[in-house]
Amino acid sequence: MKVALFIPCFVNELYPHVAMATAELLEGYGVDVHYPLEQSCCGQPLSNNGDSKGACDAARRFTGVFKDYDYVVSPSGSCTAHVKHHYPWYIAADADYQKLQPRIYEIIEFLQDVLKVKTLPKPVYFPHTVSIHQSCHGLRELHHAAPSELMIPYFSRLESILQLVDGITVTVPERRDECCGFGGTFSVDEPEVSVMMGEDRIAQHEATGAEFIVGADPSCLMHMGGIIRHKCRPIRPLHIVEILTGRGGAA
User: Fold this and answer.
1) Backbone angles phi, psi at 156, to 5 degrees
2) According to the model, what pLDDT value does residue 251 have?
3) What residue spans of 34-94 are helical by DSSP H?
């Protein structure tokens, strides 16, 4: 199985340890992991700002870089959702993309739906309480959990896979799927509103008694992490792959 890592721009620049933990996790299951150096931005910021031509060019470039791999796997829910569900706005008729689209996965989806993991590659002990942050893209476009407004039976991919970790205590905030306020370019266009939403969300996670906010979307963790550092709060954001690889204790 030849798997390409799709590492979003900001992860490459600011959170390379998340990229390395993702590669380590996949390799632990015997996956043949590749990192195409030709990859670039998936085009989500261009799309968000109405640059259809730029977004289309980015989509065609992405498809050209990744089309020959068995699977494409990323540690970012929002970027995966953009490639998987928004590229059809731009290149729906592209034959290469039509073949590639069903082979694009966010890391937790890939572990559960393709590898169907029941154990971790190595025992992981994480004796801490965590609060699950369910990002909007992961929730409503990748179906990581049951959106509360649908009133369907509750499930959570993140909670399920964290049960494989020894010693962990998993909690969820009272308003389990509320937005953290990042929203990509929304946080730039409406910084005051974005920060207030982030502060509210962090308070909800703190109310669980958790030591860590854990999610599968580093953009949301980045937003809340910036507010946490600015406010000198003790709770810490942590990407789920850092826990699953045993890297969380050193974060």
Assistant:
1) -150, 120
2) 44
3) 44-48, 52-66, 77-81, 88-91
